[in-house]
Amino acid sequence: MLTSAAEPLLSVARLESGYGKIRVLHGVDLSIAAGEVVALLGPNGAGKTTLLRTVSGLLPVNAGDVRFDGRDFTKIMPREATRAGLVHVIEGHRVFTQLSVTDNLLLAGYDLPRAERAGRVEEALSFFPEIAVKRNERGGALSGGQQQMLTVAQGLVRRPRLLMLDEPSAGLSPVLVDRVLNVIGQLKQRGTAVILVEQLLEKALAAADRVYALVQGQIALEAPTSESDLPKRLERAYFGHESHALEAS
Predict the structure, then answer these.
(1) φ/ψ bin of 11: left (φ > 0), alpha (ψ from -120 to 50), beta (otherwise)
(2) What confidence category does residue 246 fall into, taking pLDDT thresholds of 50, 70 and 90?
(3) The CATH number of 1-85+161-176+191-249 is which of 3.90.550.10, 3.60.40.10, 3.20.20.140, 3.40.50.300?
(4) Beta partners for residue 213, in sequence order
(5) Contact of 220 with 214, CB cutoff 8 Å
(6) Which part of the chain is CATH 3.40.50.300?
(7) Residue 222 pLDDT more than 50?
(8) Residue 241, C-beta contacts closer than 8 angstroms, at least 6 positions apart
(9) How many H helices and E strands in the chain?
(10) Three-state SS for 189?
(11) In what order do the strands lie in the sheet with 10-19?
């Protein structure tokens, strides 16, 4: 019999969602434990971003269930999800270009007690020394890579229990990619769970404990990243030669 400690932090079952009449997800099952890093991989158009948007409440659930920390998230609103500890960092550099780095981070914690916000900002900046030294500069004066760091730092201000990152390496140099992905390891050590959507296969697998492959709106594969033949299995999954996820233990 499973104990409450064994229950996943996030559980997605038979999830269907999309945009209006266009159905993108077709019965997706996914789970993540507290403190676990899961890579969500798949070809362009597979539904990865749609899945994250549905879990965080940006898109409605057409069918199925989403549960977070034992709570029904099927009809959650984005602000409520964030307050509950599920933080979604959307793809792209979404910063306020006319505001300083510090003010961008203060806004991310707008609803926190004033006495707590400054400490949260400093904590988030500690992950990214490159932008910490530019705290008084406008967001628009940062490089593209630094803006991406600031976007992730905005999510960290919330001290998430689960951080969902949608292609954080997009448009970054290899050095900055490693810098951003290194933060994932630090978060795991602190007990934060992470869902990582990433096109850089090797780096995603190196950062994650498990991987899901999403193909045409369905989970085509689920496996631990320690499997020696995982890259070949992923290739087969991408091209439709493997259509069933591993059975959960």
Answers:
(1) beta
(2) very low
(3) 3.40.50.300
(4) 41, 221
(5) yes
(6) 1-85+161-176+191-249
(7) yes
(8) none
(9) 9, 10
(10) helix
(11) 22-32, 10-19, 63-68, 71-72
Using the predicted structure, report yes or no on whether residue 192 has a pLDDT greater than 90: yes
* Cβ proximity of 86 and 54 under 8 Å: no
Rounded to two decimals, what is the model's pTM? 0.89
Report the alpha-carbon distance of residue 40 to residue 223 in Å, rounded. 11
pLDDT tens for residues 58-103?
999 999 999 999 999 999 999 999 999 999 998 766 789 999 999 9
Q: Pick the closest to residue 148 from 168, 173, 162 (CA basis).
A: 168
Q: Is 189 exposed, middle or buried (0-12, 13-18, 19+ CB in 10 A)?
A: exposed
User: What does the alpha-carbon distance between residue 216 and residue 78 come to, in Å, rounded to a whole number?
Assistant: 25
Q: Could you give the 3-state DSSP secondary structure of residue 234?
A: helix
| Pick from 115-119, 134-138, 153-157, 172-176: least confident | 172-176
CA distance 193 to 128: 19
Say what the pLDDT of residue 240 is. 65
Query: In this structure, what DSSP letter does residue 126 have?
Result: T
- Cβ atoms of 136 and 101 within 8 Å: the answer is yes
